[in-house]
Write a structure and sequence with these properties.
Elements lengths: L1 H16 L15 E2 L7 E2 L6 E5 L1 H5 L6 H5 L5 E4 L10 E4 L7 E5 L2 E2 L21 E8 L3 H4 L6 E7 L8 E9 L3 E12 L2 E12 L19 E13 L4 E15 L12 E17 L2 E18 L2 E19 L4 E16 L10 E18 L2 E12 L3 E14 L3 E12 L3 H5 L10 E14 L4 E13 L2 E4 L2 E4 L2 E13 L5 E17 L5 E5 L7 E10 L4 E10 L2 E7 L2 E7 L2 E11 L3 E8 L19 E9 L1
Parallel strand pairs: 6-9
Antiparallel strand pairs: 1-2, 3-8, 4-5, 6-7, 8-9, 10-11, 10-36, 11-12, 12-13, 13-14, 14-15, 15-16, 16-17, 17-18, 18-19, 19-20, 20-21, 21-22, 22-23, 23-24, 24-27, 25-26, 27-28, 28-29, 28-30, 30-31, 31-34, 32-33, 34-35, 35-36
Keywords: Cell outer membrane, Ion transport, Membrane, Receptor, Signal, TonB box, Transmembrane, Transmembrane beta strand, Transport
Subcellular location: Cell outer membrane
Organism: Chitinophaga caseinilytica
């Protein structure tokens, strides 16, 4: 296993070394403008935040795949279930933390799930990639700007907006393994002071058996899955300074699922849908801007299982008013206030019939100060004061300095704290615990980024440590508080252009974590507990624009050893999972107004691996199709 990790690391570094003596295009990203780091436009050179940008070109080279697939190829992120049946739930493990510690945004607004099944983070199965323009990934604790769930990081999914001409028609049609069929169609355009985008996506597949069949009888049935997604956005330039953007996003899916590890079921069915609607507003000032965001979100889940029927209705309300202003050319200030409310109705799992609808809310004023370009020095100082309806008042902070040497070398560091309240499900369901305490976190981060060989090589190295007190976990069918969770890790990322039109990307990520809790003897017990999260992951991706019309790429990703929990009612046991390596490839040919593509996954048809113990994984699978825009 150690040999495999060394080979991957050596391969990544070798890919960078090839850029030393060859010509290539510039890859420096310091001048790239991003929005997620500070909630307003800012160059990456002016912030010490660790950001990854997945641009429109990369999104376009992932036809036939999903948002979860794309995120699963990023350093420090592991998507549990990415190689399982398409209907299997996708869990976001970000720097060793579970889904509940990651905030997922859609155009800067949190897309929450008050049902609490993934901690408040939206189910990735609700997000069709066809409606995505780009993705910005912000690593590290960011609760000062983005609230209580942003302890591990933030994923900002930026959707497609209006075009530059009155009418633009676009879409795709994809067919793949297991009788998978996906189609999307959209209209986008601009006329006078109004722009618009509306698109629809449908996906269906027969799938595979969700549970692994080790009986040898072949009786396990396929667990099918289908989904729909509608995205509509209108931009109105009401005045020279005021822009309004109402939006509506609706997604649903239906899936069959099995009874657990190695357990088939021909009855279990699920129907879920999500509504995300609201309005964004921006008023430009001479040296800044004022932003107002409001969103209403509703998620419903209707399950039919061997044990009966359940219905869950979660609703979330979000309001955020903030502004930023340039006091001087080197000093900026931002201030705002955020309101959140969540409601949950559960007809089966809430213990007390009289109180099947529960709610909690918070109000959070926050302030951030930014120093920029002081002879290469930059600094962010921020604080948020959260007034929570059930868990009192909490203060969180961010200290984030950075320094850029001659636009070639950047060093950065961060100390940030976080606060997270228990979800309504963890408090009040039949598995809940009303005595749960809120979680407190402090994270530390430091690293460097350099651009070598005439900006032909981009190398970033980051180390982090995260401590969470009173961490909430679901163990043996019960939510509990641990005394403390400590995680640490390192991420190495390389982007190089050894020759013209050739891009080589690689990463190696290491993460480890341990929990401390009171043992049966009354003494503290400490042990490693990163379930389904490997200590080591690594990836090499090579993309080549062979001609003006032909693009090819290949990706090899290694996932190291990890443990899983095998539930045997009423207890569970640890199971060690072996490492595995996945090889994928993509080919695209541009016909002008249309593109045809072929996407092959798990080319070696590796079937001897567990992603989640007791659940089947995909062997070789492929998708091919056409996308168009005119």
């Amino acid at each position: 296993m150690k040999k495999t990790h060394l080979v991957l690391t050596a391969g990544i570094l070798a890919a960078g070394h090839t850029a030393q003596s060859q010509d290539s295009t510039q890859v420096s990203q310091l001048n790239t403008v991003v929005v997620t780091a500070t909630k307003f436009n800012k160059k990456q050179s002016e912030t010490g935040k660790v950001l990854t940008i997945i641009g429109p070109q990369t999104i376009g080279h992932n036809m036939g795949r999903t948002v979860a697939d794309v995120l699963n190829e990023q350093a420090g992120i592991v998507i549990g279930g990415a190689f399982s049946n398409p209907g299997k739930n996708r869990e976001v493990y970000f720097r060793g933390a579970t889904s509940q510690y990651t905030t997922i945004l859609m155009d800067g607004i949190p897309v929450a799930d008050a049902t609490g099944l993934t901690g408040n983070a939206i189910d990735l199965r609700f997000l069709p990639i066809d409606q995505v323009e780009r993705i910005e990934i912000l690593r590290g604790t960011s609760t000062t700007l983005y609230g209580s769930d942003a302890i591990a990081g933030v994923i900002n999914i930026i959707t497609k907006k209006g075009g530059i001409k009155p009418v633009n028609v676009y879409g795709d049609l994809v067919y793949g393994s297991n009788r998978s069929l996906k189609g999307s169609a959209g209209l986008r355009g601009k006329q006078d002071n109004v722009d618009y985008n509306i698109s629809f996506t449908h996906f269906t597949t027969d799938g595979i058996s969700e549970a692994a069949d080790t009986t040898g009888t072949g009786d396990f049935d396929r667990d099918g899955y289908s989904s729909n997604g509608l995205n509509a956005t209108v931009g109105i330039q009401a005045t020279e300074n005021l822009r309004l953007q109402p939006f509506l996003f609706f997604s649903d899916y239906k899936s069959n699922f099995d009874g657990g590890s190695f357990v088939d079921s021909k009855l279990n069915k699920n129907k879920s849908n999500a509504l995300h609607s609201g309005i964004r507003a921006q008023y430009d000032l001479s040296k800044g801007a004022i932003f107002g965001n409001f969103a209403y979100q509703k998620v419903t889940r209707d399950d039919e299982t061997d044990w009966g029927k359940t219905f869950t209705d979660g609703r979330a309300y979000y309001g955020d008013l903030y502004g930023h202003y340039d006091i001087t050319s080197w000093f900026q200030v931002m201030a705002g206030a955020e309101y959140r409310k969540s409601e949950l109705t559960d007809t089966a799992n809430f213990k007390d019939v009289k109180y099947r609808t529960r709610e909690q809310h918070s109000i959070s004023p926050y302030v951030a100060l930014f120093l920029k370009n002081l002879h290469g020095f930059n600094m962010e100082l921020g604080g948020r004061y959260t007034l929570h309806s059930q868990f009192g008042n909490q203060f969180t902070y961010t200290i984030n300095p950075s320094y850029v040497f001659s636009d070639k070398f950047k060093v950065f560091a961060s100390v940030a704290s976080g606060f997270k309240a228990p979800t309504l499900t963890s408090l009040y369901s039949i598995y809940g615990n009303k005595d749960l305490k809120a979680e407190d976190a402090v994270s530390y981060e430091a690293g460097a980024q350099t651009f070598l060989f005439n900006n032909k090589l981009d190398l970033r190295v980051v180390g982090f440590r995260r401590n969470i007190k009173n961490q909430i976990s679901y163990i043996n069918y019960k939510y509990i508080n641990y005394n403390q969770q400590k995680d640490k890790g390192v991420e190495v990322e390389v982007i190089a252009h050894p020759i013209e039109n050739l891009t080589v990307k690689g990463f190696y990520a290491y993460v480890d974590g341990e929990v401390t809790t009171v043992g049966g003897s009354g003494k503290d017990t400490t042990y490693s507990n990163l379930i389904r999260r490997p200590n080591h992951t690594g990836q090499i991706e090579i993309g080549f624009q062979a001609t003006k019309k032909l693009f090819v790429s290949t990706t090899v990703k290694h996932t190291g050893t990890r443990n899983d929990l095998f539930y045997k009612f009423p207890q569970s046991e640890y199971v060690a999972l072996d490492p595995y390596t996945m090889w994928n490839a993509y080919v695209e040919y541009n016909l002008g107004k249309a593109r045809v593509f072929f996407n092959a996954n798990n080319i070696t048809n590796n079937k001897k691996y567990w992603e989640i113990y007791g659940y089947a994984t995909l062997g070789f699978n492929m998708q091919s199709g056409v996308s168009f825009s005119f």
